[in-house]
Structure formats: structure tokens, C-alpha cells
Amino acid sequence: MKSIPQKHTKQHPKHKTEIKVGNMLIGGAEPVVMAGPCAVESYEQLREVALTLKMLGVKGLRAGAFKPRTSPYSFQGMGEEGIKLLSRIGKEMDLAIISEVMSIEQIPIMLEHVDCLQVGSRNMQNFDLLKALGKTNKPILLKRGLAATLDEFINAAEYILAGGNEQVILCERGIRSFDPATRNVLDLASVALLRERTHLPIIVDPSHATGQRSLIIPASRAGIAIGSDGLLVEAHPQPEKSVSDADQALSLDELAELVRQVRIMSDAMLACEEDVLKSLKASA
Ligand code: PEP
Ligand code: MN
To answer: How far is the centre of ligand 1, averaged over its atoms, from the C-alpha of 54 (Å)?
Structure first.
């Protein structure tokens, strides 16, 4: 593989970065789930999702208020009003709030109201935005670009870290391919490779990677099995009514099933790691 200068993201043999987002620890022993609707639609919608998250022990609510839409005629998000609704729910329900920032001008309101700023795929190489986020002190969830190589992805993270902000979470969300059968192609190997090449936490977004409700739980299991630090999943109280990404929105019951299966996978991963350690000790 081509080697790129990695001054800040390179893996140190004994160092894996853990990042606190509200009460949620990303990169620790257990994988985390961040879930919520693609877009904030109303206080009632957020509250229904938030109540489910609390019941399931999920600590992160992710929803977009500034939405990067392919068509300028599609719903563009509730904007500042949506951010304020997220902030209110976050406080009322003690949930960590993650939401997308699309421009430098939006940074101040995001810093005031959310716990983690998401950079969407379309902005992965918006270098001015990355530089500005490097000067903040909040965690940044950086999504892989629609067709970005891993070197480009790592370099995008370098931009933020080089500015002084070391709290970057990488997110594999699928890449473009020739085949429209799934929305994108979930690049699972990239998760293991990013683990080798960086010290940053890595999560998987099975929703944008597959684009199909029925594929999200299997893709989530695979994401945990390959060693991701968690999942970013879209869920909606009435998926068919979702104003954006309806095909990939889980119902709240399906989200509960996903969380149940993630716990089983996480236990299996811990058992696997313990077994590997035991056999390494035995052969030493
Ligand atoms: C999103 O998270 O809702 C989103 C727009 O994702 P992506 O940037 O991965 O397309
Ligand atoms: Mn979405």
C-alpha cells in the first residue's frame, strides 16, 4: 500500500484512542450504538425515539438538522430550530447528541448545542471545514467520502488532528460501486485496515452502506465481527413516513432487535479475544 505521511493518525503499538461523547465512551471495551432518524422532524418524533433509546440502554441520539440533499427541492432539514430541539431532548433524556455540520458558519450553534459534530460524506474533503473543526474541542464523527480511498479518508482526519483536535471518530458508510443492488458497498475490510493504520475509533453505518432496511441487522453484525467500535443506525417511529432515507429507516422494534443482536456479537467478540490471549500466553 502507498504510504502517506501520517503525523497524527498513525497507530501507536500500545495506544488506541477512546473518545467520550456525553456519557458514551467510543473506542472502549464495548461497541456503542448511536441511533435516530435521518432528519429531525418534530419534538414528538425525537421524544419517541429518545424514549426507546433510554429503554434499550442506547446512549447516543443521532439526527440531522442541516441535511445535505441530492436535490435542492428535497426537504433541507429544520436547521437551527432542529438543533435546538435536539439539544432540549438531549438534556431532558440525558442522551449524547450527534448531528451533522455542513459549513463553517454552522459551527458556533453546533458547539453550543451538540456533543459531537458529524462531517458527512459529501464534506469529507471540505478542507476549510476540516481545518475549522480542528480548532474546536468537541468530538468529530468523520464519514468516509462517497468514493474516497482510505488514504484520502485518513488525510481528511489528519486535517482535523493537525489543527489540534484529536477527538476524531472514523465512520465507514459504504462506497460507490457499479452495482445499484445496494445503495453503496460496505467496505468491511477498511474497518480492519483503519484499525491497523490509525489509533482512532472506527464505527460502521450500515444504514447508508446498504440503503435497505432488511440488510441493516446483518451488516451490523458483520461490522461488530470485524472489530468496529460501534454503529450509527437510522431509525424512525414510522419508517414509511420518514421525510428522508425512508427505505433504510428501522422501526423502533427493529432497532430493539438490532441492539439485542449487537450485545450478543459483542459478548462473542470479547470471548474470542480472551481465548486468543489465553492461547498466546500458553504458547509463550
Ligand atoms: C446521514 O448521515 O444522514 C448522511 C447524509 O450520511 P452520509 O453523509 O454518509 O451520506
Ligand atoms: Mn440519512
So the answer is: 24
> Stretch 48-69: mean pLDDT, rounded?
98
Residue owning the nearest CA to atom 3 of ligand 1: 38
Closest listed residue to residue 216, CA positions, set 249, 192, 187: 249
For 212-271, write each residue's pLDDT tens digit.
999 999 999 999 999 999 999 999 999 999 999 999 999 999 999 999 999 999 999 999
CA distance 277 to 273: 6
With cell 435536539, the residue in question is 86
Secondary structure E strands in 4-82: 19-21, 24-26, 32-36, 60-62
N-to-C CA span, the chain: 31
Ligand 1 atom at minimal distance to the Cα of residue 121: 8
The C-alpha atoms of residue 243 and residue 245 are separated, in whole angstroms, by: 7
Find the residues whose C-beta lies inside 6 A of ligand 1. Answer: 38, 64, 68, 120-122, 143, 173, 208
Residue 147: all three cell numbers together: 468514493
How many angstroms separate the CA atoms of 58 and 251, rounded? 15
C-alpha 168/C-alpha 153 separation (Å) is 12
Q: Which atom of ligand 1 is nearest to the CA of 232?
A: 2
For the cut 80, the answer to whether the pLDDT of residue 65 exceeds it is yes
Strands 96-100 and 60-62: parallel
Q: Give the Å distance between the CA of 111 and the centre of ligand 1.
A: 20
